[in-house]
Specification:
The structure is a single chain. The chain is α+β, with helices and mostly antiparallel strands. Helices cover 37% and strands 21% of the residues. It contains 8 helices and 12 strands. The strands form 2 sheets. Strands 1, 2, 3, 4, 5, 6, 7, 8 and 9 form a 9-stranded antiparallel β-sheet that branches. A 3-stranded antiparallel β-sheet has the order 11-10-12. β3 and β4 form a beta hairpin. The protein starts with 10 loop residues before the first helix and ends in a 5-residue tail after the last helix.
Length: 219
């Protein structure tokens, strides 16, 4: 996809591209993913035994699956420290707060779907053009409120390849939050392949993304 064609894409087309790029999970894998998110949201690294118990699957199976997935980060004690858009480490600029615990997201899109798995989030990020802080809350139902900049938008980027171990390099680094469309257009003009979407469209994309990734496991 090129910078010339992406701005004309509909929400349906963007959603189809996201679906094609991301992993398709079985029901057991969905439970495992949600278990990791919820345990990691407590702010500490997560061990496989706890994840397996929370997901209701055998520990060897949980370990094998987690090790087979891309973009799962481990510490020296074989505990998960970062997982598919969420980390307990401080990773500016996408900071999130859940139940009094400070966490970080990998990109501006992540909090919009993470809330559907782990619950209400307070989000703080920054406009990469001006450095100005952007804050909002996103509820368990995906609804956004208390936005510091009601006209805020996101940059987005799609690729024609399946995400692997380089999702942060090919996607996350290009998905940012801006205080205004003007700032976003200034930034995307300097980053080929990126385009601007409204916060409303991003919220709808996150709803669809979460439905595929979590299924009934996030209920």
């Amino acid at each position: 996809m090129t910078a010339e064609t992406t701005p004309a894409l509909s929400v349906d087309a963007i959603d189809a591209a996201l679906a094609a790029a991301s992993l398709h999970l079985s029901e057991e894998e969905q439970r495992l993913a949600v278990a990791v998110y919820r345990l990691l949201s407590a702010g500490d690294p997560v061990g496989v035994p706890a994840v397996a118990a929370a997901a209701g699957i055998p520990e060897p199976q949980a370990a094998s699956t987690l090790r087979s997935w891309p973009e799962v980060f481990w510490d020296s004690s074989d505990r998960v420290t970062g997982f598919w858009g969420l980390t307990a480490a401080d990773m500016p600029p996408h900071r999130i707060r859940h139940a009094g615990v400070d966490l970080s997201a990998w990109c501006a899109f992540d909090p919009l779907f993470l809330a559907r798995a782990i619950g209400d989030l307070e989000v703080t990020t920054a406009d990469p053009v001006t450095g100005e802080a952007i804050t909002y809350r996103v509820g368990r139902d995906g609804a956004v409120d208390a936005a510091s900049h009601p006209g805020a938008v996101l940059s987005f980027r799609l690729t024609d390849q399946t995400w692997g171990d380089d999702v942060r390099a090919v996607f996350c680094h290009y998905v940012r939050h801006f205080t205004s469309r003007g700032h976003a257009e200034q930034w995307t003009a300097a980053h080929p392949g990126t385009f601007v979407i409204s916060l409303d469209d991003a919220t709808e994309l996150a709803r669809r993304f979460a439905a595929r990734r979590f299924g009934s496991a996030a209920a």
